[in-house]
Design goal:
heterodimer; A: Rossmann fold; Alpha-Beta Plaits; 6-stranded mixed sheet; 10 helices; globular; B: two-stranded antiparallel sheet; 15 helices
Chain lengths: 289, 311
């Protein structure tokens, strides 16, 4: 069964169209990265999925309509909307008690176990914790909930590199089990690269790119060529071209590896290079599909 | 993985199927109220503080003059004597009731705005608690929790005043019997409870409903939004039609509306000559209109909490 299914999802704020008839299907057990520039519609998409905002079009999350059934949906869905949305007055112990009180799928011992690995003390209030600790606390609460879908919206924004790395490591090691679905929206592309199974680029309310990571690895190749090979390389119709250290780097879609290897160094592009290529083509009105 | 992770009880697969489908509504309400007590400690700390200050004041001043007053009492007629003896009890009741009103107003104005201002609403909404449960739990603070708490704290305070008074009188060799006979704590408490529930809860319900609604709607300065529109209507009416109907209505509602509940010779609801007229109160159309309006305000507040975009 599809975990998230959207057809013609549309959302406008006054005259600004945040989402323009988006179609989307996320199968269970995937880890999807939703990447896009600021204001592209990432948060609006996630808010619709979480029942935080009304929308036009059809949307089912785990078979439910998120807007009318948010409270029931939250039995099976967790989210970290942002860093530092935990109420500042709450004590760590109170947060544990409260979630244990209202959430039937919360395993308090598990949350305590995650917290034991941090330096967070139970009697502390959230306002006394550092930004990184607040995120650790929130992650501990969320990972102790036996949910089917976890949604993360810029969960590591403003954190230092150690916390960011730790965040995704614990998510993969302690939480993801192959059955759960995770959707992450971020613009810090590089650090989630190794985590994802699927990738989606969103720009100005449209999904401009949607592929699984296997597909990306098998289809996209980056070629670094010296000036004398450049014309031969260009003849193979690269989708993007950039300069690096005096050499030209070309990005190809579905071109034979052997053929490229004859012209220069070949490697799999990073997500950020792919992102720049796809978004650059968008800007010029070209299609990346 | 560290040993801590291994020591943790792993959730067996079967427990997924056995996991309770839902948590009973009463438990949700319990935790919603618990959250309010954690977040707004003034709900219980303020009445307790006022009671302590009052008792302290009574100990260092009121109690001293008591034997003197009781010696002079033979010269007074029974009514005056009664008033004099009851004075500290009335002051205690009045002070705690004033505290209740102040806390109720400030609580309501903040109740639904604060969670949006500090964005914690995104955390609360990530849990399986409905907007209806949240808004109703918040509304129950001024409608149920605060009035009951006020009455209990008042009763305890008055009981302590009585104990201290009797001890002081006995210590100065006076009979506490006359004094004791003039004070009927149970009657006073019931009168206070009746007064609070009729005038400050049922009759005033639209005020709290309105404040909660504004709290759910306003992005900031909720207090101004709550007070300025009624004043603007008054001013506009005066300018356009040169009438003061709305002002008169507000005045009637804010001040005298609750008088249907009692017939008293005096404004003090604890007066023994006060007659309760609950039937007259309950048959006032204004009361029921007010309650319907309150329900509409709360329904709108629930809807707003749901619709307000997280910013």
């Amino acid at each position: 069964m599809a975990c998230i299914e959207a057809r013609g999802l549309r959302k406008a704020f006054g005259k600004t169209i945040a989402l323009d008839r988006v179609n989307l299907c996320v199968e269970e057990g995937r880890i999807l990265g939703l990447i896009g520039p600021n204001g592209a519609g990432k948060t609006t998409t996630l808010n619709s999925i979480l029942g935080l905002t009304p929308y036009e079009g059809e949307l089912r999350v785990l078979g439910r309509d998120p807007w009318t059934e948010r409270d029931r949906l939250m039995h099976d869905v967790c989210f970290i909307a942002d860093v530092a949305v935990l109420p500042r007055w709450i004590r760590v112990s109170q947060a544990l008690e409260y979630v244990a009180g209202v959430h039937p799928r919360f395993d308090r011992a598990k949350a305590e176990g995650f917290l034991a690995k941090t330096t967070i003390r139970r009697e502390r209030r959230v306002r006394e914790l550092s930004k990184g600790m607040v995120t650790q606390l929130h992650l501990a609460l969320v990972m102790a909930i036996d949910a089917r879908l976890l949604v993360l919206d810029e969960p590591t924004l403003g954190l230092d590199i150690l916390f960011r790395k730790q965040f995704y490591d614990s998510l993969l090691n302690d939480y993801f089990d192959g059955n759960r679905t995770i959707v992450v929206a971020t613009h810090q592309v590089d650090e989630i690269e190794h985590v994802l199974t699927d990738l989606m680029f969103i720009d100005r309310g449209h999904i401009v790119f949607s592929r699984s990571m296997e597909e990306i690895e098998s289809r996209y190749l980056e070629l670094m060529v010296s000036p004398e090979q450049i014309l031969a390389a260009r003849a193979l119709k690269p989708i993007h071209e950039r300069q690096m250290f005096g050499r030209t780097v070309l990005l190809f879609d579905s071109v034979d590896r052997q053929q490229l290897a004859a012209l220069g160094d070949v490697r799999t592009p990073s997500i950020s290079d792919l992102f720049v290529a796809v978004m650059g083509n968008q800007g010029q009105g070209g299609a990346a599909r | 993985m560290s040993s801590q992770t291994n020591a943790m009880p792993d959730t067996p697969l079967e427990s997924q199927a056995l996991a309770p489908a839902a948590i009973p509504a009463t438990r949700h309400i319990y935790w919603a109220l618990q959250r309010e007590f954690w977040e707004n400690r003034a709900i219980y700390l303020a009445p307790l503080a006022v009671a302590c200050v009052f008792l302290f004041g009574f100990l260092i001043t009121g109690a001293h003059h008591l034997p003197q007053k009781m010696r002079a009492a033979s010269a007074l007629d029974p009514m005056q004597l009664h008033h004099q003896i009851e004075e500290p009890y009335d002051i205690a009741g009045g002070a705690l009731m004033g505290t209740f009103l102040i806390i109720a107003v400030f609580y309501c104005i903040e109740a639904l705005q604060r969670e949006r201002r500090d964005r914690s609403i995104l955390f609360w909404k990530s849990l399986p608690v409905s907007d209806v449960t949240t808004v109703l739990s918040k509304a129950s603070i001024p409608f149920v929790v605060l009035p009951l708490l006020t009455c209990v704290v008042t009763l305890v305070t008055q009981f302590l005043v009585l104990l201290v008074s009797c001890a002081v009188l006995a210590g100065s060799g006076l009979s506490a019997a006359t004094y004791w006979s003039q004070v009927s704590l149970v009657q006073m408490s019931l009168l206070l409870l009746y007064h609070v529930m009729t005038v400050h809860v049922l009759w005033s319900a639209p005020i709290y409903g309105w404040l909660l609604l504004v709290s759910a709607w306003a992005r900031r300065t909720a207090f101004l939004w709550a007070t300025l529109p009624p004043l603007a209507i008054v001013a506009l009416e005066k300018l356009l039609f040169n009438t003061t109907h709305f002002a008169a209505f507000l005045g009637h509602f804010l001040s005298g509306g609750g008088t249907e509940a009692i017939t008293a010779p005096d404004t003090m609801p604890m007066d023994p000559l006060t007659q309760l007229t609950p039937l007259k109160f309950l048959s006032t159309p204004g009361l029921w209109i007010g309650l319907v309006v309150t329900a509409a305000f709360l329904a709108a507040a629930v809807r707003l909490r749901r619709y307000r975009e997280p910013t």
